[in-house]
Amino acid sequence: MLKFVVYGIPRPQGSKRGFYRNGRVVLVEASKQLPEWRGAVIESAKLAALESGWVTCDSACRVEVTFFLPKPKTVKRQFPIVPPDADKLLRAVFDSLTAAKVVSDDSVICDVIVLKRYADSPGAVVTVMPLL
Q1: pLDDT in tens, 62-97
Q2: pLDDT at 29 over 80
Q3: How many domains does the chain have?
């Protein structure tokens, strides 16, 4: 099992903006902060893998992620039932796990547990477990 913490505001991946450049359509991620967030996930994952002796998982695995989002001062509700969507937050983590060589490809992730919560310190706790 590999478990690590990522600090920073979780950013979604998947929403894109399109525009024309030299007669071609170019798609760009809508979130300008995505590269910084993915970099933080990759760095935390690589460090945890190195410290634990983790070997890239190339068979079925489970990923559990708890995202901690900053709570706006005016919000009274307990849960973050507003964007970003959990699935788009997961995309950024899955692609980062592949880039960090924690998993060989995000297609090997068969089980997923995801939570979105408010917290004073934004970030995420990620756990990866082989199923076999």
Answers
A1: 999 999 999 999 999 999 999 999 999 999 999 999
A2: no
A3: 1
| pTM for the whole structure | 0.89
Helices (H), ranges, 1-132:
34-52, 86-99
Task: Name the residue among 98, 93, 100, 82 with its Cα closest to residue 126.
Answer: 93
Task: Give the Cβ contact number of residue 38 at 10 Å.
Answer: 22
CATH code of residue 55:
3.30.1330.70
Structure tokens at 107: 């297609």
pLDDT tens-digit series, residues 105-122: 999 999 999 999 999 999
Cβ 65 vs Cβ 13: under 8 Å: no
**Which range marks the domain in which residue 54 is found?**
2-130
- Entry field: residues in the chain: 132
